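Histamine N-methyltransferase, pasting as requested.
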Amino acid sequence: MENFDVNKLQSLCNDVDHYILCTQEYEKRVAWLPDYMKWVNTYLATQVLDKLDVTLPEGGAFRHLGVGSGEGVVEYQLLSRILNKHPSIHNTVIDPSSKQVDLYKKLIKEKAPALDGVRYDWRLQTLGEYQQSSEESGDNTKFHFISALYCLYYEPDMDAALEFLYSRLEPGGVLLVGMETDSCDMIKIEQHFQFAQDDMNQFFCTRDICAYYEKQRIPYLVCNQPDDQRDFDITDCFDDASDEGALVLDFLSNVLHFRQTVPPSLLKEFRDYLKKLATLRDGKVFLYYDSAYILALKNKVPNISGDAGL
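Structure tokens follow.
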């Protein structure tokens, strides 16, 4: 290992299709989506979406910006709830993956006519590209609700990304960011090894979001959900014959084809660190997952009350 240059490891983000496979395998184990949907339809719906201080002109549309919308499964829950109060929505979708956007468009067809009140503006861009193109074209569109879930850690400058998104909120609007907390083992792994670190792979967590809002004196609310604290099984990460375990190793390390690329000594070091963090139970190996949703509020603050958790 002494002669192995870890700086030459390729980031998982260099292969979008493989990244999607790894993400899907990871999310299958973490299983955060059902709890997120429950949270949307309870707290977010009743305490935020239903109380947004938004006044639309007659015939006007509620404007939503989705950052990193992916295949649309998560965003569908938001839009369905907003449609209960605002029958017309203009939804701008930002995602650089044409494959993910195609899946989103397929979902829309499957969910019709439930989403007939939504018009879409598709942007095959990163957030930075969207910002640049909108500034160059003089597009200063503001939005009543902006959602950026588990995607801002791909921004080279977190503060600049938050500044831009907050500037695009209408007064009374809300910016929703979802991200892992610093208690999450995924964050600990990234910070310990720092493999393939570049502009697309910063090591951000919810602590960084809160620090920015506090520095800028932006009112915000952290919604920690008890159901978003869980163990997830990584036992097959230690099985060299497991294809699924290899995908999870790639995701945890942020390295493309990690098991096949690194020398045995580094693979052992990585696995040893996983075991150091892990909980062993019934012959299986579990890591700890924790995330939170942070709501930034602009000027006219919605009347938020009650427990933000489930």
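Note for the archive: The domain at 14-231+290-297 is CATH 3.40.50.150 (Rossmann fold).
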